[in-house]
Each structure stands twice: as structure tokens, then as C-alpha cells.
């Protein structure tokens, strides 16, 4: 086999392998790490029931997507002065004491203490916090349309580029093969 031909064959195999490795590493990096998950302060199943019974959904949406109050899944990560909005101590404090809107907050409504349901116990509040945390850790929220379009476009461009390169390599191989066949006939 010709040395140039070996080089083209090696490149034709290396490009798809490189794409496969890149894809696998990208997917592995995007999965959430369970080691970084905070410990749940209570029972999320009880918290889900309490969320519905206490009327939390009237402000935060039945599916935690927000409304009058901010979305709780995904919990708003733009809250000023809050390093980790999924910190159990932070959530328990907010549910217990309520929260006045801060400058830069996406919503301007006051969260009343215990969400206005003063009969909530300390354990109920821990269960609500556990429900919010678990809801945010179960899965990543869907990508916004703009981000989804960017990622799709990137992979389409990579795929078209790889296919073009492989087509070029095959064309080079075929042209050399045709030239060798023609020279063999002329002898």
C-alpha cells in the first residue's frame, strides 16, 4: 500500500474517532455530579404534598415554574447576595421568615413568612425545602431555544465539516486509483 494512501486512510478513520471521543466527553461533562448535591433536610415526598396543600403553587406555580413568585425549578440563580439558592439553610430561612424583594431580584413581591400558612411546623418547612432541592436535582431543565439552536448549529457544522473532509479523502483515493488503472492499461 502506498505511504500517501496509508496517511489518507488513517485520517479517514481518525476524524470520526475524534468526533466520537468529543461527543462522549461532552455528554460525560454535562451530567450532574451527585457528590456536589446538598443533603436533603427533610422528606421531599411530604414536602410535595405540603406544597400543594399550603397553596405555595398559587405564587410559585403548581410545577414550580413561577408566577407571582419566582420559579423554584429551576430556582433563580440570579438572586443577589445568594451564593447557592439550593442551600438548605437558605431555603429554610426564606420559607420560615419570608423575604423582601432585593434590588436586582426578578420579582418585586414580598414572600410572607411561612408562605402565609402560619400553621407550618419546623419539620414541614424542612420537608418543603427538601422538595425544592430534589426538584432541582432530578434533572436539568430544558435548554432555552437560543441555546438549543447554538448547540445544534455547532454539531451540524462539525458534522458537515467531517463529512466534507472524508469525501475529500475518498476522492483523492479514487483519483489515484483511477490514475493507476489508466497507467496499467497503457502499458
Keywords:
187 residues, 6 helices, 0% strand, rod-shaped
Secondary-structure topology with pairs:
Blueprint: H1 3-30, H2 44-53, H3 57-60, H4 88-97, H5 122-138, H6 145-186
Q: What does this entry look like structurally?
A:
With 187 residues, the chain is an all-alpha fold. It has 2 domains: 3-24 and 144-186; 43-138, Cytochrome c-like domain (Cytochrome Bc1 Complex, Chain D, domain 2, Orthogonal Bundle), CATH 1.10.760.10. The relative contact order is 0.14. It has 6 helices and no strands. The two termini are 21 Å apart.
- By CATH's scheme, which homologous superfamily of the largest domain applies? Cytochrome c-like domain
- List the uncertain runs: 29-35
The residue fraction in helices comes out at 55-70%
Determine the CATH topology of the largest domain.
Answer: Cytochrome Bc1 Complex, Chain D, domain 2
Give the integer mean of the pLDDT values: 80
Approximately how much beta-strand content do the residues carry? Answer: under 5%
Structural class: mainly alpha
The string of secondary-structure elements, in order, is HHHHHH
Counting DSSP E segments of at least 2 residues, the number of strands comes to 0
Instruction: Give me the CATH architecture of the largest domain, please.
Output: Orthogonal Bundle
H/I helix tally? 6
Oligomer classification: single chain
Short description:
Helix content is 59%, strand content 0%. By secondary structure, it is an all-alpha fold. It folds into 2 domains: 3-24 and 144-186; 43-138, Orthogonal Bundle (Cytochrome Bc1 Complex, Chain D, domain 2).
Amino acid at each position: 500500500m502506498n505511504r500517501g494512501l496509508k496517511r489518507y486512510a488513517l485520517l479517514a478513520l481518525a476524524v470520526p474517532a475524534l468526533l466520537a471521543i468529543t461527543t462522549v466527553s461532552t455528554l460525560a461533562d454535562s451530567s450532574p455530579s451527585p457528590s456536589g448535591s446538598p443533603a436533603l433536610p427533610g422528606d421531599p415526598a411530604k414536602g410535595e404534598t405540603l406544597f400543594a396543600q399550603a397553596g405555595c403553587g398559587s405564587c410559585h406555580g403548581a410545577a414550580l415554574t413561577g408566577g407571582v413568585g419566582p420559579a423554584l425549578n429551576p430556582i433563580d440563580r440570579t438572586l443577589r447576595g445568594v451564593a447557592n439558592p439550593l442551600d438548605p439553610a437558605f431555603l429554610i430561612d426564606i420559607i420560615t421568615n419570608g423575604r423582601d424583594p432585593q434590588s436586582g431580584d426578578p420579582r418585586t413581591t414580598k414572600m410572607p413568612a411561612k408562605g402565609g400558612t402560619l400553621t407550618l411546623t419546623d419539620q414541614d418547612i424542612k420537608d418543603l425545602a427538601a422538595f425544592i432541592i430534589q426538584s432541582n436535582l432530578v434533572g436539568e431543565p430544558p435548554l432555552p431555544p437560543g441555546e438549543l439552536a447554538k448547540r445544534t448549529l455547532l454539531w451540524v457544522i462539525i458534522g458537515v465539516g467531517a463529512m466534507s473532509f472524508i469525501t475529500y479523502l475518498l476522492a483523492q483515493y479514487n483519483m489515484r486509483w483511477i490514475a493507476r488503472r489508466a497507467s496499467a492499461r497503457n502499458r
